Amino acid sequence: MAIDIFGKAVLDYQNNNYTSDITTFSSLDEEDSMPLPYLFRSYDAMPLLEQKALELCKGTILDIGCGAGSHSLYLQEKKHHVTALDISEGAIEVCKKRGIKNTVCTNLYDFKNVRFDTLLLLMNGIGIVGKLTNLNRFFMHLKNLLKPNGQILLDSSDIIYMFDEDEDGGYWIPDGNTYYGEVNFSMTYKGEKSSLFDWLYIDYNTLQRAAIANNLNCELIKEGEHFDFLAKLTLNT
How many domains does one find in the chain? Predict the structure, then answer.
C-alpha cells in the first residue's frame, strides 16, 4: 500500500505535532517545501482566485481533492451543503476532526451515482489528471457527477514561465512528445518518501480546447498575478 505522506503530515499538524513541512521533488529539477500551516489557512489568507471560486459556489458542492478541508470548512460555515472528497485517509480524518460533516475517502473515478451543482477543484485540483491524454476520461467522469445546470470551478497555472526565455520572447522547451505542463512529483516527510506520481499544470487555452472537445463551455473567470487562473466549465446544452 502506498504511503500516505500527505495524510500523515496534515494529521500531525491537526494533532499539534507540527515539527516539519512536506518536501516535494519534481521532474523540473526543483526541490520545494509545502508548509503545513498554509493547508489550514482561513478564507482571509486564501489567494483571491480561491476566494472568488468559493463565492461562485452554489447548490450542492463536491470539493474534489479537499486536502485538509479548508475550502469545505468555509463553505459549510456559510451554510452550503458540501461534500469533501480525497483519496488520502489522513486528510479525510483531519476533515472530520475539523468538523466537516460530509466526507468521502475514495479515488475520484470510484465515486459515482451522485450529482452536484458545483464541482470544486482548487489548488490546481486538475493536477490529478496527470497527463493531457487523460483529460477526456476526466471530463467524461465529471460530467456524470454534474447536474444539468451545474458548474465546474478549477484553478491551474501555466508553468511556461519556468522555462528559459529567448531574446524574441519565446521559451526554450525541451524536445519531446510530452506537454510541458506534465510533471512528475514525489514527497518526503519525516524520513518517509512517497512513490512517484504524475501531476498536470495546464494553460488556459489548452484547457479550453479540451473542454470544447468534450462538449463543455469554458469561461476564464479571473487571472492571478503569476500565470495562474480560475476557470468555470458548464455543460453545453
Answer: 1
pLDDT reading at 175 higher than 60: no
Q: Is residue 90 part of a domain?
A: yes
b/e for 49-64, b at 16 or more Cβ within 10 A? Answer: bbbbbbeebeebbbbb
pLDDT by residue (tens digit) across 26-54? 998 779 999 999 999 999 999 999 999 99
The CATH number assigned to the domain holding 52 equals 3.40.50.150
This prediction's pTM: 0.93
Domain that holds residue 148: 46-179+201-235
Ranges assigned E (strand) in 28-136: 31-34, 60-64, 81-86, 103-105, 116-121
Chain position carrying cell 489550514: 40
CA 196 to chain centre: 17
Nearest C-alpha neighbor of 151 from the set 125, 122, 119, 127: 119
92 in a structural domain: yes
